[in-house]
Amino acid sequence: MTVRFVGAGPGAADLITVRGRDVIAASPVCLYAGSLVPTELLEHCPPEAKLVDTAKLTLDDILAEMLAAHEAGLDVARLHSGDPSVFSAVAEQMRRLDAAGIPYEVVPGVPAFAAAAAALNREFTVPGVGQTVVLTRTSARATPMPEHENLATLGRSRATMVLHLAVNRIEELVEELVPNYGADCPVAVVANASRADELVLRATLSDIAAQVRAAGIVRTAVVVVGEVLTASEFPDSHLYSTNRCRD
């Protein structure tokens, strides 16, 4: 058997990849986080599939389900929101599977920051304005951040910054980012990206906190900071330049 970690996308059920959908359809066991993964995706599961909502399970509980499936020779689709490569808590599951000798694969998904960019109709890498994107989060109730990955350090380059799992600390974010980015730096908050209740806020660091509190956004949101959000005067990409060699 094989465990397949499937990126279930940012929220909209139709933002699953074809490969991810096919894995779900072929797996007799499906583990999913009920609080994050759209239940419509479960309609792709085989009729007799075992469905396990992992929202309230511990890591040991989840691994026990995978071990039981392994002993029964049953493939497992393990659905994670977004893409498994970032902020997915997949690494510790892989470590346990390695120790148990259970094979696994990863099926990429659409990450939340990509869905946020789509909602904003913006490219996060704009020629002459910003060519670097920092994906990060902050420490609160979640796992502590490494000491050298604080916002003051990460913000020195003024690169486009995308913060996950951080909107509930919006006032602290502003306080830490203003010294590098300036109070007038453009900011966007995208809550529930790609879902029916998607909400987009556009502001600057000076007034984003008030907008977030007024909108009642406390989670499931991405915070984007950087000049690329409002850039309009920038050079065309060399990709389409008449000076580019196309031989």
Overview of the structural elements:
The chain is α/β, with parallel strands linked by helices. Helices cover 27% and strands 20% of the residues. The chain contains 7 helices and 10 strands. The strands form 2 sheets. A 5-stranded parallel β-sheet has the order 3-2-4-1-5, with helices on both faces. A 5-stranded mixed β-sheet has the order 6-7-10-8-9, sandwiched between helices. A hairpin with a 7-residue loop joins strand 8 and strand 9. The radius of gyration is 20 Å and the shape is globular. The termini are far apart.
Helix and strand topology:
Elements: E1 3-7, H1 18-26, E2 29-32, E3 50-53, H2 59-72, E4 76-80, H3 91-100, E5 104-107, H4 112-120, E6 133-137, H5 151-154, E7 160-164, H6 170-181, E8 186-191, E9 199-204, H7 208-215, E10 221-225
Parallel strand pairs: 1-4, 1-5, 2-3, 2-4, 6-7
Antiparallel strand pairs: 7-10, 8-9, 8-10
In short:
The protein is an alpha/beta fold.
Q: Any idea what the shape is?
A: globular
Structural class: alpha/beta
Mean pLDDT: 94
Please give the order of strands in the largest beta sheet.
3-2-4-1-5
Task: Name the descriptors.
5-stranded parallel β-sheet, alpha/beta, 247 residues, 10 strands, 5-stranded mixed β-sheet, globular
